[in-house]
Amino acid sequence: MMRKCVLLLAVVSIFMAVPAFAADTIKIGEIATVTGEMAPYGVAEVEAIKIAVDEINTAGGILGKKVEVTMYDCRTRQEDMVNAARRLVDQDKVVAVIGPSGSGLCIAASPIFNAAKVPHLGTLPTNPLVTQDAQGKVIPYNFRICFLDPYQGRMIAYFTAKELGLKKAAILYDVASDYSQGLREFFIESFKEYGGEIVADEGCRTDDIEFRSQLTNIKNSGADVVIYPFLGKPLPLAVKQARELGIEQTIVGGDGYGDFMWEICGDTLGNTYWINHVDRYDPTLLPFFDKYEKVTGTECKEFANAILAYDCVYWLKDAIERAGSDDPVKIRDALEATKDLKLVHAVLTMDEFHNPTGKDGVVQRCDPVQQKALFHVKIRPE
């Protein structure tokens, strides 16, 4: 369906006075899922990037220049993502673009960024095809700050089989999502290596709100664990409906977890575990989350999106400073050469495919008494 999209434009103005936008600014683009199924994640990224840019500008900017951010809402739709990317590089003349988190969204806009030679930094797009083409060749202008689906899928499999000792898995995944399909595929591959068996494999779609048919098949499958490799608003609905059908088995999912899920699930989130990039209650991250709440007046519930978007800004700042220029091609080269960069959530080094290396995963356990996802264990699979 091709129709002209109406993009929500939000220029995040960092100047206290309006006049001087021009050669004295470094223009950065942002694309976020402010509306649609992934809206909670996108809102957190927008707020986090505002915080980072404000900090940088207060400290003197980058290369002595203030930073100006232009944000478009892609509404969780690929056609809007493509149009936003095209507008940022052709009309707004940004030097780099940050976000969003969806793999399919980033993949859809990749040709735009590479044709324009403008680097793109994904916040949480974990599908390998975000930075590599189908032949396994690196895509020159695409980068990510998060670990990948093959690694995440292996972590889910490792934790399920080795830490929990559960070997009969049923899967519910989103057939319309590149992220979900990839995570499912890599989980299955690794789970079998660890001696696991797939006893049910059920599909749903991103906009579904009813999962009882698939969950009934899962209930009857003999599974001792249920795997949810998807994200967005369907995720808490699928948890709640599983419990309502009497599925009491452990549920394990990936980085789709967000604190917003408690509003729908309540106590039914008990006995669920989620593999994530960071821990909301990591002491090193608390100053950021305290500042987020102070600035926005709200608690940061989609913490992984927020902290990785925040760190993307500082990663880009470091690259521009090492390049000594705001030329997009030179920035790309500096991003590619990133090594041992200390950010808030991790020390960042890029591999030859523009992916971070050597990052631990965090397992969070949902506690229905405290209504929180608590730190359970860090893992780095065999």
Q: How is this fold's topology laid out?
A:
Elements: E1 8-12, E2 25-32, H1 39-58, E3 66-73, H2 78-90, E4 96-98, H3 103-116, E5 120-122, E6 142-144, H4 149-163, E7 168-174, H5 178-193, E8 197-204, H6 212-219, E9 225-228, H7 234-244, E10 250-253, H8 261-265, E11 272-276, H9 286-296, H10 303-323, H11 328-336, E12 341-342, E13 347-348, E14 361-367, E15 372-379
Parallel strand pairs: 2-3, 2-4, 4-5, 5-6, 7-8, 7-9, 9-10, 10-11
Antiparallel strand pairs: 1-3, 11-14, 12-13, 14-15
Helix pairs in contact: 1-10, 2-3, 4-5, 10-11
CATH architecture term of the largest domain: 3-Layer(aba) Sandwich
Q: Going across the major beta sheet, what is the strand order?
A: 8-7-9-10-11-14-15
The fraction of residues in strands falls at 15-25%
Q: Flag low-confidence runs.
A: 1-22
CATH 4th-level superfamily of the largest domain: Response regulator
The rounded Rg comes to: 20 Å
Number of helices: 11
Largest sheet: 7 strands, mixed
Q: Compute the separation of the termini in Å.
A: 44 Å
Give me the strand/helix succession.
EEHEHEHEEHEHEHEHEHEHHHEEEE
